[in-house]
From TrEMBL:
Location(s) in or outside the cell: Cytoplasm, Cytosol
Subunit text: Component of the translation initiation factor 2B (eIF2B) complex which is a heterodecamer of two sets of five different subunits: alpha, beta, gamma, delta and epsilon. Subunits alpha, beta and delta comprise a regulatory subcomplex and subunits epsilon and gamma comprise a catalytic subcomplex. Within the complex, the hexameric regulatory complex resides at the center, with the two heterodimeric catalytic subcomplexes bound on opposite sides.
Keywords, comma-separated and alphabetical: Cytoplasm, Initiation factor, Protein biosynthesis
Biased composition annotated in UniProt, kind: Polar residues: 457-472
GO cellular component, one term: cytosol
Region ranges (Disordered): 453-501
PANTHER family: TRANSLATION INITIATION FACTOR EIF-2B SUBUNIT GAMMA
UniProt-listed Gene3D superfamilies: Hexapeptide repeat proteins, Spore Coat Polysaccharide Biosynthesis Protein SpsA, Chain A
Name of the protein in its database record: Translation initiation factor eIF2B subunit gamma
UniProt xrefs under Pfam families: LbH_EIF2B
Organism: Tetrapisispora phaffii (strain ATCC 24235 / CBS 4417 / NBRC 1672 / NRRL Y-8282 / UCD 70-5)
Amino acid sequence: MNLQAFIFCGKGNHLSPIVDQHFEHRSTPKALLPIGNRPMIEYVIDWCDQANFKEINIVAQVDEIEQIKEGLTTFLELREKQFEALSKVLTQSYHTNHLHKPIVINFISSKCNNTGEKLTKELLPRITNDFVLLPCDFVTDVPPQILYDHFLNMDDNNLAMSVYYNNQIENSDRRHMGKQFFTVYSNNDDLSERSVLLDIYSKENVAKTKYLQIRNHMLWRYPNATVSTKLLNSFIYYCSYDLVKLLRDDKSTDRNDNSSDEESMEIDLTEIKPSYFKRKNKLIKDTINSNKSLAKVFRDLARRSWQHEEKRSTVAIFILPEVTSFYRANNLNSFMEANRFILKIKAQSFSKQGKTAPTASVIGIDSIVGQDCTILEKTNIKMSAIGDGCKIGKRCRIVGSIILSNVTIEDDVTLENVIIGEHAKISIKSKLTNCDVEEHYVVPSRSVLKGEVLSRSEGNSDVEASSNAAESTTDDDETDEETDEYYDDEEFDDDDGLFER
C-alpha cells in the first residue's frame, strides 16, 4: 500500500484513574498501557505491518515522545530480528516475493494541543500522497486489506473514508463510556453510490432540545439518511491527497498544484492518480477551522456535502460488519474488554493445541502473568492479566481483572472485575468488585468495596475513595479533553454557525 500512516498517541483522560493526569509520579503514557501485557500501540504497529504501508509515523506530545520511543525499543529490535530470521529462511527458497523489510517508523513530536492542529500545522508538509490516520489504542481481527480495498473503491468525489463500528460492549453502564452520539449517514443500498457521513449530534444536546434537529438542507439532498445511536467512531480515516489541498492555507501553492496537474495530464497520464481526472465534483476550497479535534474536523467536512448550494466533496463512511471484533481502549470499559479479547485468543490458541498451563490449578490458560511476579500458594487467577513485578499473597482469588505492573496484593484478597493501576497496594483480606484503583493507591485492610473508583485527592497523600474522580476528568472543559482524546468523540455543538441561512 502506497499510504503514509500516522498514529496519534493521546494522554488518556478517559482512562482515569488508571492514567492520572494530576500527579507528578505518573510514568506511563497511554500508548504504553498494556493490553494482554503488551503496550497497546504494538498491536497498532503489527496491524500496520500487515498493511505494508509506505511508512509509519507515531505522533505524540513533546513530553511523551521520547518515553514512547524508549518503551518500544525492545519491540522494534525484535521486529528487526524476526525479519532477519525470516529472510535467511526465504532466501533459500523461491518464495522471496513474500519478504518485505520492516516498515520505516518515524517519531514525530508535537507541540499542538489537538489533532486538528497537528494535522494542518505539523503533518501536512510531511504528506506526499494518500494517507491514513490511526489511534494508538485499538485491537481488531479486521485485516487492513479490507479497509484499503473499500478506500480504493470509494466514489470519485469522496475526500476520505471514515471507519465506524458497532458497540459490542453489553455492560456499558458499569463504567464510564464517554459521550455518546447520534450518527447520521446516507444508507445507500445501490453500489453505484456508496454511503457517506452526514452529521453527528451529541446525545446531551439532543436531550437538552428534546428532539433531534435534522437540517432541511441535508434531507433535501440525502432523503435516505439513517440515524444510529450504536455506531462508534474508530478514529480511522483513510484520506486522499486532495484533502491536503483542501486543508492547506497556501493558496498560491494550491494554484501551482492545479497547474502542474494539468501539465502532467498533457504529458503522461500514468503519473496522475485516477481521482484527479475521474472526480465528478470540482474541489472547492472552503475555510475549515482546524483548531479542534479531528472528529470535529471530519464532521465539518461531512457537513460540506449538503450545507452548500453547490455540491462539495463528501466523506465516505464504512461500517465494520458485526461479525468482526473491534475494540478501542479509550475508556475503562473498552480497556477491560480489549484485554478480555486478547485473553480469549490466548485461551483458544492453547485449547486448539491441546495444551494446558503448567500451573493450571492456580493460573488459568485464559490468564497472562508478567515477568518477575511472585504468586504464593493457593491463589487462583482466572481470565486476568497480571503485569510485571507484581507480588500476590496466599489464598487470593483474582477473576476477570487487569493488574498493572508492580502491584502488591496481600493475603486473602478477592478481586472480581477490577482494574488496578501501577504500584497500588491491596491490603490483607480485602474484597473489591467492579472497582477501579488509581496507581500508587493503598486500599486499607479488610475493605469491602463494590463499584467504586478509588483515587487520591490532588495534593493529599492520604488514602481517599472518590466515586466521582473519573467523572471530574471525563467532564472537563473542551480544552482539556482536546489535549487528550484526539479520537474519542467530543461534544458537538448543536449549531456552531456552519450552516447557510
